[in-house]
Prior knowledge:
With 662 residues, the chain is an alpha/beta fold. The N and C termini lie far apart (53 Å).
Amino acid sequence: MRSISRSSAGLRGIRQALPAALAAAALLVGLTPGTTSAAASADTTTMTTVLTGEQLAASWRGPLSTRGRYIVDADGNRFKLKAGNWSGAQGTWEGSGDVNDPANHQADQKSNNIPLGLDRAPMARILADFHELGLNTIRLPYADAMIRDTTVVADKAVTANPELRGKTPLQVFDAVVAALTADGFAVILNNHTTTYRWCCGLDGNERWNSSQTTQEWVDNWRFMVNRYKSNKRVVGADLRNEVRRDWNDDPNWGWGNEHDLYEAFQEAGLRIQDAHPDILVIMEGINWQGIPQGMFPHGRPTLTPVRNLSNTLMYSNKLVYSAHFYGFTGPNHTGSTGGWQNGETNDPRYRDLSPEDLIKVIDDQALFVTESGQHFTAPVWVSEFGTGGRGQTDQKETDWFNRFTDILVENDTDFAVWPLTGWTTDGKINDNWALISYDEAGKRQSVLDPGDWRATAWNKLVNATGRTGKVAEADRWNMLNVASGNQNASSWMRAHAPVQTPGNLQGSCPDGQRLIGISRENRRGLCTDVNQLATGSGDWAVVRDQTNVTQDWAPYWEKLECPTNHYAAGFAFWDTAISGLLCAPAAGTLPKTNRVAWFDRGDNPALNETQIKNDWAPYDYKGQCRTDEYLAGVAYTFNRTQGAPAHGKLGVPDALLCRPLS
């Protein structure tokens, strides 16, 4: 969601001055462009492709999953998310003044904590207008507060939809989900905020565990996915919106503390999959880190940390990454205006970048994730972008929107515009970013109606050619990281994890994959399904000693070895010392020819075309079997006379036992 909102009279200013350091930290994202005069009518001769609800429903089948960089439907056909954000259920109150006064809500639009517009137009009309835009998916932001809100929505809030009278915000949300999915739309649930306060500054909604605990957040997600589990058109769980710095602390990616977004996403994603294996799990990167002043480090990491530390789910074909881009923000710019006192930095905004630099920055911050054959490979959904339409006078904003939509078209990128709906008051659009606005009588103004310059770019975007039809299964590579906690992506291991010695950190590959690599000191592993073995019906084994070793394939080193006809599918570490192997049964007989890959002696295998191309354990030695091999054992030593002093750590993995698949 873009922040700071505007009143119908123009930009809403800051009501009182803050001390400089606090003001700089407070405005983490900024003011949207103002509006003064109407723009010339756009050329809209290229019309949006429109499907009726019946046609859209017949065009795809849920649930959705992923194949490489693409999202596919239940039949394996590409399903490109052509989406919009129907906001409101996340709350619109700006945090001060009477909550019942529309003047204290974003753009003077009081949503009553339900999707915006239900007071002005019948649901069927709103959905028909969504179809006219060429959409197939709706992102539905909500606040955690909605789940427990027993307040009955005021009749005035649903004037145009009297069948919703007497319902709570959650019950109205239910009705909206049911109507959207019955009309063929895919629905993605988005945990936007914790409270009903408008996002996204210092508002108590900065992190998933701001104003609530991580456990409460995960429990809320399990409640939501279970609530809509039977509806196969509720296709995604968008875990958290625009995670950012609060007054004192930054979110991080992989530090293992209570501000670690990576670990929070891992926990929530796996717990959601325990409850609902079919739903897409969507993870947005870090929206802001640092105090927004030039003397302090600051920036918008977005998805860049994923390059070195990616997520692994139990069902690895359900992970989607997402990112937000607005022209008035930047890779290191908060988006604020008014100087350093208001949190504005001197860094370029996205709209200030040259066409070439914008392409590079968008790729570096997000679209690199779609590169095939990597541990991070996944679809990327730009789940928020947008700009003001009618009355837009900022040439940089119009240029940026046109160039950014060109990037989305060129990369065949899934997208969701912000926002879909808004109000018109006394003939003036409250929020000119909305693609559709309704007055009190229900009269509509759409981006596709004459006078909105965005129509040409919008038609270009929704009508763009791209990948369609069947998408082939793609090789999967997944990283395991147990540096700060368990990462059991195997359903077997999740059911039997207590068999490990307490205190061990456990990692296990997703079902249908095998362990193919282990790093030396930072407790990472690499899984793949390339040339994957069929899993047999025999017993899984947790190996903690040398019971299964019949040949001394690493003299003087201690060894863990899987039983005959088993392959490694996971591991355990005690601190940095390897302490166990999880071994899965193969469906057939496995060869026992040995190849030992040592990686404590400087002969760490080079990455090549038969292995994953990207570094899955940066700055660490690592061993990796070939893709025509399976990992059968690991060697380590606690004997200081056998080379342990050279690397300073005892018990770390030093060699892998690799055996041919056939």
